[in-house]
Amino acid sequence: MSDLLKMTATEARNSLLKKEISSVELLNAYQNAMEKTEALNNYVTTTLDAAKQMAVNADKAYAQGNAGSLAGLPIGVKDLFCTKNIETTACSAILKGFLPSYESTVTSNIWQSGGVMLGKLNCDEFAMGSSNETSIFGPAVNPWSKIDGIDLSSGGSSGGSASSVAAGSALMSLGTDTGGSIRQPAAFCGVVGLKPTYGRCSRWGIVAFASSLDQAGPFTRTVEDSALIFSVMAGHDPKDSTSASLGYTNFSEAVKSGIEGLRIGIPAEYNVDGMDIEISDLWKKGRAWLEQAGAKIVDINLPHTKYALPCYYIIAPAEASSNLARYDGIRYGKRIEAETLDAMYEATRADGFGEEVQRRILIGTYALSAGYYDAYYLKAQQVRRLIKEDFDEAFNDVDAILTPTTPTPAFPLGAEVSDPITMYLNDVFTVPANLAGLPGISVPAGFSNQGLPLGLQLLAPPFEEGRLFSVANAIEKQAEFLLAPARAAGDLQ
Amino acid sequence: MSILVSGRTGDWEIVIGMEVHAQVVSNSKLFSGSSAVFGASPNNHVSLVDAAMPGMLPVINGQCVKQAVLTGLGLNAKINKFSVFDRKNYFYADLPQGYQISQFKHPIVGEGEIQIELSDGSIHKVGIERLHLEQDAGKSLHDQHPSKSYIDLNRSGVALMEIVSKPEMHSAEQAAAYIKKLRSILRYLGTCDGNMEEGSLRADVNVSVRRPGDILGTRTETKNLNSVRFIMQAIEFEVQRQIELIEDGGEVIQETRLFDTSTGMTRTMRGKEDAHDYRYFPDPDLLPLTFDDAFIDKLKDGMPELPDEIKNRMVNEYGLSSYDANVLTEERETAVFYELASDGRDRKITANWMSVELFGALNKAGIELAQSPVKPKQLGGLVDLISDGSISGKIAKEVFSSMFETGKDAKVIVEERGLKQVSDESAIIYMIDEVLAANLDKVDEYRGGKEKLFGFFVGQVMKASKGQANPGMVNQLLKQKLDI
């Protein structure tokens, strides 16, 4: 069975096509892996009965020769995606027990291509957090934590999505990224995490955090797998007004194309204070690898980078304060009865939202208030435009940008949760791409002195995910990263 | 157009501005596909978007955009090819999203103006500040259960146009003329059904008073007035209240007030300090709304003739009085009816018959023009019979009553009842001879100088003809006979 866990999605797909393995066998292997890694707290809901049926259907489709591109591949879904008749909570008490009557566009696409749904994955409450510790279900644990050692954070917000793929309890998974929620946990857990261009994947049916920043994206073990599942996730959706009108692209081809002659930018401003030396060393290594692969390295400037984090922490909470107003105890989710309508709102929302979510609602409400709007929200929007213009300018000279994904490797659970500012600094390298709407990918590229995975981030101009895959593939090839977390379900490589 | 009101301590000028909420005529809601039809049982026209389920996103309904642009054109207003939807954030039980999607800084329609006519015939212009699109909220029902409120989301998300006037009205009469004219334009355009009772058209009225020439006084806003009468009552009440307040040494407080339809008075709803901070910001789920000149031009080409244009035509080409033209153009249906009825015949006679006899009969029967048993062509048929002398005006009234009762054509009724006017000279002379022979004494008196008796002879001849004799001919022939 453990051989099944070693397969990448692309390998499993090929074996399924050749009928060397069956979808049901593959599912069984993952079911075992889920049981073995239960302590990592990755799944908040499992859907194995449905999975069995989907696997049986996938095998039928393979037998009939009409299997979709993800047929039989076991996939976990961040609990932020609404899934029909399957509890969807955004890992918040306020949505406990909520059963959507609809399926998000992205997950629909996955199931239509034959993907097998393992269950819903842990995340920070409403995707607000960088350690998965704000989840009502408790944190997802990083599988790289030493056995009997201190538990490490999986990162967040898509902690369960990253951890499950790293631990071998999901072959691939779906996450969302508003300020780094895919790339940071991917780096912490040693897997590939892609944040697509804003507008590339439909947001319809995904619990909204910050609408102008949210994007769905995949977690995979390889760049090739990322391209495989992303090809299915992406696409125009008339139900999302911000979805780009672009036709289907098969990104698997892009993975293989070489990067000779591509110009890769190294932004000076990403040399931030407090960055671990091992991170900057890795960054240098990445630069050298790409050079060896034939790329041309160009030093660039993104002068407004230092404003990205404060700008993000105005815009995201502002949008969140409005997006989360619908959780009012009236139509669905939690309600605490009270004498008056206002008292009911207060009791319900005080009880239903955790501390971090309440903090961001308050920050956002403040930033939008009369008398403060111009100084905060409007100013942040102006800064956001400057940040985007930095990138526009840079992409005149380079084809992609290489940065570290995070300033540090995974930290122990509990280490930063009491200090929001330190926690927010986790997103320092990832936030600019969300503000500018750019695609970004984190590729596992090396290890810290303590043996924890480190990631490199690549950024490209809007809708150039294909180019990201090419460059990421070059890094992946040379990094020869070994995915072997201590607390994985088995040997994964 | 300054109209002054005298108070105890001198004259006051009234300043009125209006915000009108007009429900857009559209099959579906502003941002969802559910039906926008009025009157369904509660919560039957509610989509996932309308109920603000997690992860649901708004998608703009193009029809509502067209309707807003069309309305803008009808208000002679600037159409903004770039506009932005904003979120207006506040909590209420019948506001599922916790915000209303509206337009704040960049409305779809900018400044315009409409023309109003007052009872003295004077014409005034009232400026339009802006028009924007927004969602309606749902409805809270507080009287269905002793301890619970019920929420009906059928209206949630229905498209409204908020039309904001400039503070350029100075009397309740002007305000009434404004809302009537606005309603008329909307109905001509087919962009709002104007049904005030059902709430398709409702007004918030801002009123302030000042000494002539002073800067603007503090205003109050009276919300949700859904009839012209209530608008006038609320304004009159507010004006008196504010003047008395100031003259008694008090001060008007900027506040939102409610109108009590049973007492005709307004009362405080919430003060300035309780005013919401709506935290407007651009809705990140929607892109800015943009369109090009071709889009506007196409709508312009399809625009119907508006009441002002039709009225001008009626006065200048048909020779109608301004009053008649007003009556006939207030409603589009009336104008259409009239155009059909009067086409190819005497416009003035038709106008008369329509505004006096037909409207009178409809009023009496309590039915709308659309349900009139007398159709436009039929009214025209009646006018034809009058014009060609087939029937007299008096007989025509009788014929009309019968038409209204039976729905039959005038011609049919005239033939069935043998009401055709007698214009045969010999027949009339025969009747005159009979009348004169039977009243020889009166003929002598008449010839002796008692000319008043002429009317008596006319009456007798008409009576003998059962009213069908051509009155003009009777007059003329009778004169010839008597004045020998």
Percent of residues of chain B in helical segments? 25-40%
First-last Cα distance of chain A: 13 Å
Estimate nothing, just give the exact number of structural domains of chain B: 3
Q: Please state the second-level CATH architecture of chain A.
A: Alpha-Beta Complex
Query: β content of chain A, as a range?
Result: 5-15%
Helix content of chain A: 25-40%
Low-confidence stretches of chain A: none
Q: In total, how many beta strands of chain A? A: 11
Major sheet of chain B, described briefly? 9 strands, mixed
- One letter per element, helices H and strands E, the order of chain A comes to HHHEHEHEHEHEEHHEHEHHHHEHHEEH
Q: Assign an overall shape of chain A.
A: globular
Number of distinct helices of chain B:
15
Tell me what the structure shows.
The complex is a heterodimer of chains A (493) and B (484). Chain A is α/β, with parallel strands linked by helices. Chain A has a single domain (2-265, 397-479), classed as Amidase signature (AS) enzymes. Chain A contains 17 helices and 11 strands. An 11-stranded mixed sheet of chain A has the order 1-3-2-4-6-5-10-11-9-7-8, sandwiched between helices. In chain A, a hairpin with a 5-residue loop joins strand 10 (440-447) and strand 11. The longest helix of chain A has 24 residues, at 374-397. Chain B has 484 residues and is of the alpha+beta class. In chain B, 39% of the residues lie in helices and 19% in strands. Chain B contains 15 helices and 16 strands. In chain B, a hairpin with a 5-residue loop joins strand 6 (112-117) and strand 7. The model of chain B has no long low-confidence stretch (mean pLDDT 93).
